[in-house]
C-alpha cells in the first residue's frame, strides 16, 4: 500500500468533536492497510488569538525569532491533541514537532517566511518513513520549519499546505489529501451564488490562477510543491472520510517550478479602434470582441484607453480582422476610425513567485530599456507579465527577459 499524506486545516480541527472525527478518518484508512502521515494546522483561530495577545503585550517590539516561536505553539498544540486522539482509538501514533529528532523540514534563517532546504529535508524525511514502516502514524506540524541552528521558523502563507505537498514529494506518497471546510473547489463562491457547483477536477495551473485571485481553498504558494506524479485532492471534513471524492488536482504539466518565458512563433498585428470617450460607452468592447469571435479570429490581448481600444491578432488574420472591424466602426455612432498597425512580437513571462515579488515588472523591463527596445504594450496578472515589442526586436527582447529569470 502507498503512503497517504492527509493535511487537516484549522477549521477541520476546530473543536474536540472535529478532531475526533478527523482522527477516526485517519484510523479508518490505516485499518484498510494504508500508511498515513498527518499534517495539522493550528486549531481554528488559535494563531489569530496569539497574535492579538502579542500585539497588546508587546506591539512591534517583538522580534521575528520571538514571533515565530509564539505562533508555532498553535501547531505544536494541535499535533499533540491529534496524535493522542489517534492513540485513544487504538493505533500507535507520534507527534513530530521541530524539537523532535524526526523533524524533517529544514529551512534558511528567515523566521517568518523561510525557504526550504530541499536536499536536507529529503534526507531528514527518511525518519518519518521509518516511523510509518513501524506501523506508527506520524502527526507533523504544518507551517513550521527549523533552521540549521535549531531555531523555529515559519513557511509563511499557505504553510501547512506547503508541508503536505513537500512531504508528499519527499516520501514519494501515493496521494496528498487536503481536508478543509468545503467539499472541494467550487465553480464560484457558494456564499455569493447558490448555483455554484463542485468541480471534479482542476489543473494546478487553473488552481493557481484561481487562488491568486482570491479563492481561499488552497494557497498558490503550496502549488509550487505539488509533484505531478502524486495524486492530490481537496475534500471537506464534515463527512469524516478520507476516501470521499472531492476535487482532484491535476498536474502540474511538468516537474519544474513554473518560471519561464515564451515568444510567439508568428508576428502579431495591432488594430486600434478609436472614438470619443468610448471607454464610457457600454457595449463597445463586446461589439469588437463578438465580431472577431464570429469570424473565428483569436485575440491575444486587449488594451483600453479613454478614446481607443487596441486588439492584438495574428498577422495572418489581420487583414480580415481589419475588414470586419471596419464594418463595426462605420455602423457605430460612437466609433470614428481604426488603423492596422505594425507587426509585433509577444513575450510571455510566467512565475508563481510574481505574486510576492515587488518590482517584478521593472526588473523584467529594465534590460529592454537599457537596450533601447520599445515596449508597444504591457499587461500583467498576479502570475504573468506579457510584453509586446516590435517584431524585429522580438528575439533580442526574449533573450534579455530569459536572462532575468536565471
TrEMBL record:
What UniProt keywords are attached to this protein's entry? Amino-acid biosynthesis, ATP-binding, Kinase, Nucleotide-binding, Transferase
Return the GO cellular component terms, semicolon-separated: cytosol
Please verify whether the record's keywords include Transferase: yes
Pathway assigned to this chain's UniProt record: Amino-acid biosynthesis; L-lysine biosynthesis via DAP pathway; (S)-tetrahydrodipicolinate from L-aspartate: step 1/4; Amino-acid biosynthesis; L-threonine biosynthesis; L-threonine from L-aspartate: step 1/5; Amino-acid biosynthesis; L-methionine biosynthesis via de novo pathway; L-homoserine from L-aspartate: step 1/3
In its UniProt record, which GO terms are filed under biological process? Answer: homoserine biosynthetic process; lysine biosynthetic process via diaminopimelate; threonine biosynthetic process
The record places domain ACT at 273-342, 349-406
Listed under catalytic activity are:
L-aspartate + ATP = 4-phospho-L-aspartate + ADP
Query: What CDD domains would the database entry show?
Result: AAK_AK, ACT_AK-like_2
Report the EC number(s), separated by commas if there are several.
Answer: 2.7.2.4
Family, per the entry? Belongs to the aspartokinase family.
**What is the protein's name according to its record?**
Aspartokinase
